[in-house]
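Design request, tokens follow.
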């Protein structure tokens, strides 16, 4: 497949600023920063502020994982002794909704002050959507994505015997949050559905040995993003146009790939997924090509499934089998100026 990359900012100094601008010139126009880790790759407010300042000049996009590291660390320490009785449910309790929406609010504040370009990854809370909505009303350059697990599941999964398999960050939330996310999609407050796919096998997940802080956090998701979301959109009677904008067109525009990608028109790459809208599939991890030996959507009944995938006019997958040429994928150099122009003009499709 054709591909591009996000860069990760783990520190901030004059050299990083130079490296950031060099990467933008080389076609890497998005940079991920973490607000949730006190060690390793955490970005404090000063780093985030300076990075956002730089995007005002170079047109790049700062992607933020928004969780408050300091309160999070406090709550993890508080619930860790209770893991034996709470199990994986302790993971959800240690990362309540305010851990996310406070961090989103702070990131939006810095984007507002600096006039930088901000993208909130994997939004999971209803309050987070509301904060983003208010920021956009004030004219802040902020966009948001959510993921299938937040739209399809609820935090009840953590009470299951195998609840540790579902541990991801942010965690899966309540039914209330799920419905507010769907409302955000319908109202145009969320622009992208991504996956944050991070697959661990059962053996790797089981290594937690009853301590929720040792669970490898992440879920497999890329392979089923399109069919699970299409089935969900269909059940909620949300249009195909809305679906396509969230999974293809908007991401291409925000990340500087449009109109080469994300649309079917003269001059664009002929990247097409052909769907059988009537094909019924019951999800079983054994039928997937991923090496991960489980899926969070096991047993889910889907209507509509991809049957052919075309890359630049050439069929590369058919009926679940790869039929393309290995090595045919290209690195995509992205255009920050183009991304800024198209992102700011991103049409908000309100309604179903």
């Amino acid at each position: 497949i054709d591909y591009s990359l996000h860069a990760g900012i783990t520190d901030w100094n004059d050299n990083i600023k130079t490296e950031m601008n060099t990467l933008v010139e080389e076609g890497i126009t998005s940079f991920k920063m973490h607000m949730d880790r006190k060690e390793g790759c955490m970005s404090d407010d000063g780093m985030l502020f300076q990075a956002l300042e730089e995007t005002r000049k170079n047109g790049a996009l700062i992607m933020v994982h928004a969780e408050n590291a300091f309160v999070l660390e406090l709550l993890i320490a508080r619930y860790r002794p209770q893991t034996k009785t709470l199990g994986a449910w302790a993971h959800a309790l240690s990362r309540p909704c305010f851990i996310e929406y406070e961090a989103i609010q702070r990131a939006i504040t810095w984007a507002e002050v600096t006039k930088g370009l901000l993208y909130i990854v994997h939004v999971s809370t209803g309050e987070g959507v509301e904060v983003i909505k208010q920021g956009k009303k004030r004219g802040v350059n902020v966009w948001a994505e959510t993921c299938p697990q937040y739209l399809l599941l609820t935090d009840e999964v953590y009470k299951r015997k195998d609840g540790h398999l579902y541990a991801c960050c942010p965690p899966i939330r309540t039914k209330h949050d799920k419905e507010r996310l769907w409302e955000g999609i319908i109202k145009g407050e969320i622009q992208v559905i991504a996956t944050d796919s991070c697959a661990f096998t059962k053996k790797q997940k089981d290594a937690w040995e009853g301590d929720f802080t040792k669970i490898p956090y992440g879920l497999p998701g890329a392979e089923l993003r399109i069919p699970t979301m299409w089935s969900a959109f269909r059940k909620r009677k949300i249009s195909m146009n809305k679906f396509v904008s969230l999974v293809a067109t908007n991401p291409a525009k925000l990340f500087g790939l449009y109109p080469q990608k994300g649309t079917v028109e003269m001059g664009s790459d002929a990247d097409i997924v052909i769907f059988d809208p009537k094909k019924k599939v019951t999800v079983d991890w054994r039928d997937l090509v991923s090496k991960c030996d489980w899926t969070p959507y096991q047993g889910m009944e889907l209507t509509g499934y991809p049957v052919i995938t075309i890359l630049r006019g050439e069929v590369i997958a058919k009926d679940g089998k790869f039929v393309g040429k290995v090595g045919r994928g290209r690195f995509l150099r992205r255009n920050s100026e183009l991304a800024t122009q198209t992102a700011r003009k991103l049409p908000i499709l309100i309604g179903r």
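Comment from the thread starter after seeing the answer: thanks! Residues 97-114 form the longest helix (18 residues).
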